[in-house]
TrEMBL record:
Organism in which the protein naturally occurs: Adlercreutzia mucosicola
Keyword tags: DNA recombination
One GO CC term on file: cytosol
Chain ranges of the Transposase IS30-like HTH domain: 23-66
Biased segments, Basic and acidic residues type: 42-53
Pfam families: HTH_38
Biological processes per GO annotation: DNA recombination; transposition
Name of the protein this chain belongs to: IS30 family transposase
GO molecular function, one term: transposase activity
Keyword Iron-sulfur: no
Length: 433
């Protein structure tokens, strides 16, 4: 064998027009753009099909199927069939006005249609999306799943919590559950999602610094390290009826999303200081400083006396905490606490006739048990109670024991006022509502 005969043969590039037609797949945006340009140049369906590696019928059907009305009120609408009085060009190839020299100014025909790659792609996408609507589950199985979802929604759980809590029973992402609800499958509706219908339009206010001095302002708080800010506690109060004397002091631990609720006899700075004294006495000064050593709150009158809030009730030198204040009317600066109040209001809803004067410390324990047993998507569906114990160890367990917080199993979670009413009936007390 000679050297020339033994050398590898050079492969010749085969042009697209000579290639064997490819296996069927949907036309894409680039191919539709080629078809539009070909129509504008009066090319035949066979020529365009050869360039694209498609069949001639695929190109012809694409033009006929996705052509749109060119003018009038129905402009952009899909053309099912050309009327009998239409131009002969529309009743045979190319089925559109593209490439006609009278298209722009001199055509007297009342009905015109055209092929646009962008509109054709939108029509094709909508058709594909519509064909995939519905639920890819057997009817009996979906009815069972929908019943479980509705039961959990009635207990005040979110789609994200349902998706994680029911993962062993069925597979559905939070977005899938939201979509099923929005489309009304199995009688579900967005009215069952409290946060979909419960928000009011927010009023914007001018930014004003706190009256407690720059050293306690939100700017000073923001200047702290990220680790210190993440370990802070957000403090606020929740009110009942306007005639009520009692209110609820809320302490939200950022690092573990845990919520502490303390019942106050009145909305005053002395009552808040007494509640913090009680909490410090129950868990000790060292544990208090570790969990509540940095507090961010608003400018309410009940938090005005920062000296009494910071002063320790136990022997020893040094303050028990450091208090910072949000800017005036900027409650979103302690957004974690505000968002958690949405969950609290599931248990103590507004405008339902609940008087906070009827609340007892045992009711706060029941509410904290429910709130801190909700699986949180932001913590990979870990519960705040578990996160509290993991973050603070014995101090966390001491806090839960002192306040009567117990972790509630997912199957027993009930995020409604009935959770407190049930606990009150066990104690021989009347319902709140």
């Amino acid at each position: 064998m000679s050297g020339a005969e033994g050398a590898p043969r050079e492969r010749k590039e085969i042009p697209m027009t000579a290639r064997k037609q490819q296996r069927y797949r949907r036309l894409d945006r680039a191919e539709r753009a080629v078809i539009e340009r070909g129509l504008d140049k009066n090319r035949s369906a066979r020529e365009m099909a050869r360039d694209l590696g498609r069949s001639q019928s695929s190109v012809a059907d694409e033009v006929r199927r996705n052509r749109t009305i060119a003018r009038g009120q129905a402009k952009g609408g899909r053309v099912e069939s050309a009327p009998e009085a239409a131009c002969a060009r529309l009743r045979r190839w190319p089925h559109v006005c593209n490439g006609c020299n009278k298209r722009r100014y001199h055509c007297s025909m009342p009905f015109r249609c055209e092929y646009s790659a962008a509109r054709a792609q939108a029509i094709a996408d909508a058709t594909l999306s519509g064909s995939r609507r519905g639920v890819d589950r057997p009817e009996a199985e979906f009815e069972r799943i929908a019943a479980a979802i509705r039961a959990d929604l009635a207990r005040g759980l979110s789609p994200a919590q349902i998706s994680a809590g029911r993962a062993g029973e069925f597979s559905a992402s939070p977005s899938t559950i939201y979509r099923w609800i929005a489309r009304g499958y199995a009688g579900m509706s967005n009215m069952e999602l409290r946060r979909k219908v419960g928000y009011k339009v927010r009023k914007k206010a001018a930014l004003r610094p706190t009256a407690h001095g720059p050293e306690r302002s939100f700017a000073a708080f923001s200047a702290l390290s990220e680790g210190e800010r993440e370990a802070a506690c957000e403090m606020d109060t929740v009110m009942g009826k306007s005639s009520d004397h009692q209110c609820v002091l809320t302490l939200y631990l950022r690092c573990c999303r845990a919520q502490v609720l303390l019942l106050l006899p009145e909305k005053s700075s002395s009552a808040v200081a007494a509640a913090l004294d009680m909490l410090e006495g129950a868990i000790g000064k060292a544990a208090f400083q570790r969990m509540f050593g940095l507090i961010l709150t608003d400018n309410g009158t009940e938090f005005s006396d920062w000296r009494s809030l910071e002063k320790s009730c136990l022997p020893g030198k040094g303050a028990r905490c450091r208090v910072y204040y949000c800017d005036v009317r900027q409650s979103q600066q302690k957004g974690g606490c505000e968002r958690n109040h949405v969950e609290l209001r599931k248990l103590l809803p507004k405008r339902r006739g609940i008087s906070f004067d009827d609340l007892e410390p045992a009711d706060m324990a029941a509410a904290m048990s429910q709130l801190n047993s909700e699986p949180r998507p932001s913590m990979a569906f870990m519960t705040p109670a578990a996160a509290l114990a993991a973050a603070f160890g014995d101090d966390g367990h001491a806090l839960m024991g002192a306040l009567g917080i117990e972790e509630v199993p997912y199957a027993e979670l009930l995020m409604s006022a009935e959770a407190l009413n049930s606990a009150r009936r066990e104690r021989g007390r009347g319902p709140l509502i």
